[in-house]
């Protein structure tokens, strides 16, 4: 398969790419890193990415930003970061990318644990995660030609825990290797409309 991994140079992305590269051709994309550049917050940038990359069998996204701030301190502008990146960035990748997917291709997006297990300051990210998960479940029944769509909802990673441990007190972090396996299941398997919760 020919697979595009946006965020392929990040903590999750690198683990996904190293698994997929064993059997597939993988193209990585990031804002400044990767084989090709894209900013998911801009639709023109997504269009230009696919014009460069062409047709693929799978699109994976392992990127998305959010502002982590207590709701009492959060402004509408703070909230827009998650809406433009984690939510609309991923949905626009799917909407634009579907035109470049071969029959029986797949789209795999990323959500996250805080929508199911709240953390302080996580409401904006949770909103985006919830929107993406709902889109995936619903979009799956619209696709024809064998096109599939899933998302992966990782818990906080072992590899990122030191950085985020104050927000994730009492959580049991998961190894990125386990999270990456869920992306492989989405790409290589037959399921659609799923959210793989790796908690
Ligand atoms: N780490 C965790 O514990 C954890 C847990 C649950 C969910 N998640 C979610 O999983 C996703 C990936 O997390 P991570 O820890 O692997 O992130 P990371 O290590 O910070 O890597 C982010 C990746 O995304 C790319 N990227 C960032 N903004 C982008 C944009 N606007 N357009 C295109 N590419 C962009 C980066 O490339 P450039 O640097 O070149 O832009 C990089 O390749 C995030 O949505 C995160 O919220 C992470």
UniProtKB/TrEMBL annotation:
SUPFAM superfamilies: NAD(P)-binding Rossmann-fold domains. Transmembrane segments: none annotated. Pfam families: adh_short_C2 (PF13561). CDD domains: Lin1944_like_SDR_c. One of its GO terms (molecular function) is oxidoreductase activity. InterPro entries: NAD(P)-bd_dom_sf, SDR_DHRS6-like, SDR_fam. Keywords: Oxidoreductase. Belongs to the short-chain dehydrogenases/reductases (SDR) family. PANTHER family: DIHYDROANTICAPSIN 7-DEHYDROGENASE (PTHR43477). NCBIfam families: PRK07578.1. This is Short chain dehydrogenase. It comes from Enterococcus devriesei.
